Amino acid sequence: MTGAASAPHSTPGAHAGSAPGSSAGLRIAGLSVDYRDRGGAWRPALTDVDLSVEPGAMTAVVGESGSGKTTTAAAVIGLLAGNGRISGGSIELGGEELTALRPAQLARVRGTRIGYVPQDPGTSLNPLATIGTAVAETLRIHRLATRAQARERALELLDRVGIDSPERRIDQYPHELSGGMRQRALIAAAIAARPELIVADEPTSALDVTVQQRILDLLDDLRAEGTGILLITHDLAVAGERADTVAVMQRGRIVESGPAATVLTAPTCDYTRRLLRDAPSLTAFSPDGPQPASPAPEVRRESRPARASGAVGTGSAGRGASAGEGAQAEEPLLRVSGLTQVYARGADGAVAGVEDVSFAVPAGTTHGIVGESGSGKSTIAAVLAGTLVPQAGSAVVAGIDAARVPRTRRRELRRAVQLVHQNPASALDPMWSVGASIAEPLRSFRIGARSERAARVREAMEMVALSPDLAERRPRELSGGQLQRVAIARAFAARPQLIVFDEAVSALDVTVQAQILRLLGSLQAELGLTYVFISHDLAVVRGIAQSVSVLSRGRQVEEGPTARVFDDPQDAYTRRLIAAIPHPLG
Amino acid sequence: MSRTRPPALSWRYALNRVGQALLVLAIAFTLASVLLAILPGDAIMARYANPELALSPDQIEAIRVQSGADRGWFAQYLTTLAGFLTGDFGYSVASGAAVSDLFAAAVPATLALAAVGLAAAVLAAVAIALLATFGRQRWLRAVFDAVPSLFISVPAFWLGIVLIQVFSFQLGWVSVVDPSPAEALVLPALTLMVPLSAPLAQVLIRSIDEVRAQPFVRVTRAKGASDGWLLIHAIARNAALPALTMAGLTFGELVGGAVVTETVFGRTGIGQLTSQAVANRDNPVLLAVVVVSTAAFVLVNLAIDLLYPVIDVRLRTSPGDRGAPGNQGGHSLRAASGQADAPATAPADRQEAGA
What we know:
Chain A has about 575 residues and is an alpha/beta fold. Chain A is built from 23 helices and 20 strands.
């Protein structure tokens, strides 16, 4: 714990109650937690977990979903699910054993000595309470302030976490604030009673990168003031950039822990190495340069002439040259020009929807569309899929204008363009077996004879590396990664020419994400498919796309070959996006 | 969105809802008129064709002409409509009394019964729901979770008879012979309470469970809140909306319940008036019953609709704002809870970017 040792051990403005010296901070030793399953048997969720958070230091717990990191956070704040129990070990805060406390005593610790910052700011504030009420609630619960004092303090806190015009915001309701502001308000609420420890459970995973950066900066400031921070995250890059100590969890155990720099640069455990290899932001932005997750496009990229120049945010003249060798003279498979669908216009030039978007995608290549939420990415996806008729512009896919598709060619377009969404669980009918879902386009487009369909489904499943034995299963019996493979298999089954991926890997764990990306790359090489890959994650896009568009508030601020856009961004917004990606290795 | 804050309750919305309410009333009146006209025979026939009166068909026909019953139904419909619009509900064919007088006599008793019954039902529903969700023991929660199903299955007439049997005849707590006004109200109100409270409690249990599973409740717990604090400050208002909707709908139950209850307990009231009017084929009274109970139902639900924005701040924006996408700050409960599914799309981040 060298990182922690170098941090200040004093806790300015902290509790009189916290014990001095070595017992300060959070110490978890040998912690085991079990959950009771439906059959009544206890199954271990955490086994022998050791962790500590020094005052004024940040410890990050990293792992994939189901690794036990959120259970660790829940155990610390004493809010395990109803079927969970601590079966062994100790959790000490400032020298006091928390596992020995009765529920009422634990409730007095929560809020006053431990602050909790949740994952999803969208649902973590009471929709019917004002921001001021939420921020000052801890003070009111523990009777630390009168109503007037609480309001005073809430104003202070809102200002402290960087919310503009606190006097106005304090009386607003959550739905009137952006996601980033809500997360600031939640942090303000967590620090209201000046706790010595903050447990932050994936505090930025629901936020855009630029907002994420500012929230992490805020946590940094709190650490500098002497608060200990336990950061739960799936993002190794965030952990590496911000934390003093990193603990890697797998299947309820800590498999590796140590100073952040050591864990990230010299991992001793295979699992950590795999996580590092699969984290797109670490591979794509490591000092060695891009190492795309998908080997197949890599071949194309190397053969592509290096183009440092390129028109910025304008038409697609000469774009064909940036494709693979074979596609040079051909008409691109997809040509979007002047696409406009404006729902509303803000006073500052912001557009809800999209305005004047143009790009071209040669056959067999991938075009990435990058932007934050509300930038208009999904509007483009809807137009490409032929489900939205835009106000102006065209999107020609293999000779059919998706923006003005004649009734007679609608089915043709639907077959040529397939869509893969972010959430496969909602994109698959829960009552259907996954095999039936994959066969659906075969039935509706009358592809192949009835007797051949089973074989085609099998083939499609093998293509996405899913065991065909799973064909009879229902979606709820499969994992998120498997479901996304099913959704991809369904898209491929229609034999499309263009597949639009709308945040298709955003909800997946890094290793699953990397597998899917590799899969997409090899399928593209094999079948010569064209992809439009929409994502908020620049690193993922950099790994998979040959050309990229950057969207900001409905406007296309930059367009060009991926390497050029990332290495030499012309637009200030693109530069800000790239700068916001965590740089854990310096 | 925050720059121009619309008034808490838009007048356009209120006028719109009032217009809808009037439309419902007009439709109910017309439907009831048509249905009563379709029925074979009428009250004149029912009353004067009695063989004991020994009236000749000509004499009966004369009475029909005199009372206007011989005209086509549409002419009668227009006459009655004009009467209703001017506050004249016509005269009971059975007794000859003005329908408005009959109502004036019956409404207060039914209103008292309905008010007490509904209040008791709300209290019972809240108590059942709290025990079923916050009960300390698992078995206690399971028992009260099953209570709504039991309550809804009990027939009102049977319950009324059992209550009289037990509390009046065996225990002698409540006198049924010459009771005081309070005594006369207790058992009928209880009879009404049971079927009314069941759907309310059921909806309340589900919505409390749903709200309790929301992340913000966990966040509030992490602030050190007790169960009591959670219930009052985080859960109650959020869980109230669906139950309120249900309360408006069960008001319809109230009218039907009053018929049975008042008959079983021999109370005067709209229910008894209705059952007599049905027996006597007293169309003017029946029509008035339909219109008055529809009016009450529509009014109660209108009041509840107008209450939503008071309880839920997210509904306070004017309906005109709802069209614009990108403005998806959660105008409805559904929109707000739906955000949980989309981790990468926190709404309205343009504000943050502009800040």
